[in-house]
Amino acid sequence: MDYHRIPILALFAAAGGVSPVFADGNIVVAAQEAEATVAPRSPDSRLINLPALTFSLRAAIQCKGESLSVTMSVADTYTTLDKAELAGQRAAEAMLTVPADQLALAASSKFCIEGDSETTDELLVPGITTAQGSLQCASEAGVSVHYASVPLQVRLSCDRGPESGPEGAQDPSTAR
User: Fold this and answer.
1) Which of 54, 72, 88, 170 has its CA 20 to 30 A from that of 96?
2) Structural domain count of the chain
3) Residue 6 confidence (pLDDT) above 70
4) If you average pLDDT over residues 32-48, what whole number do you get?
5) Over 50: is that where the pLDDT of 19 sits?
6) More confident residue, 11 or 28
7) Does 168 reside within a domain?
8) What pLDDT was estimated at residue 24?
9) CA nearest 62: which of 133, 152, 150, 151?
10) pLDDT, tens digit, 9 for 90 and up, residues 135-147
11) Is residue 143 part of a domain?
12) pLDDT band at 21 (very low <50, low <70, confident <90, very high)
């Protein structure tokens, strides 16, 4: 490992995001945990329909020569930063909002079931999808492309509505 990779790796380890995964050290991708709130589902369904999710991505980049572009993607959603946007930068950031129809369903029999207060109201789903990063570099030797990916996780919260807790419970003596 050369001396440039250690500070880049330390940057992401200290950021507190998902552990970065990288191929050759020219690009390292990290992501923050996404969060979403979902409504309770029927007792006969194990699958959880996810809403659109926003992922915060950061890529540390290093080229021998100049950086031509960085593309970051999740499913079919992507953004590309060009040479002008990368000039003098050692990192690139992007927020990608991925539509629900590009995400897999999550499965759990113990999360957010309608009418079942024994099910949990929070669920961490690791590896729900993957973020990819690609870095295109140019040098005297030619153009090279480097890739990295990182599994993404989402923290789901159950919205049982105002009547789910003690504040929302109706007093039986006043019910009509």
Assistant:
1) 88
2) 1
3) no
4) 92
5) no
6) 28
7) no
8) 59
9) 133
10) 999 999 999 999 9
11) yes
12) low
Burial of residue 110, with CB atoms counted within 10 A of its CB: 0-12 exposed, 13-18 middle, 19 or more buried: exposed
**For the whole model, what pTM was predicted?**
0.77
The 3-state DSSP class for residue 99 equals coil
Q: What mean pLDDT is reported for the chain?
A: 83
SS3 5: helix
pLDDT computed for residue 162 by the predictor: 73
Q: Are 146 and 28 in contact (CB under 8 A)?
A: no
176 is a domain residue: no
Structure tokens at 33: 């945990």
Residue 154 lies in a domain: yes
At residue 65, what are phi and psi to the nearest 5 degrees?
120, -135
Q: Which residue has the tokens 């509505």?
A: 161
CB neighbours (10 Å) of residue 65?
A: 13
Dist CA 88 CA 61 (whole Å): 11
Contact 65, 137 (CB under 8 A): yes
In one letter, which amino acid is 83? K
CA distances from 37 to 11, 40, 134 (A): 30, 10, 31
Instruction: Report d(CA 163, CA 136) in Å as an integer.
Output: 53
- Residue 43 Ramachandran class (φ > 0 left, ψ -120 to 50 alpha, else beta): alpha
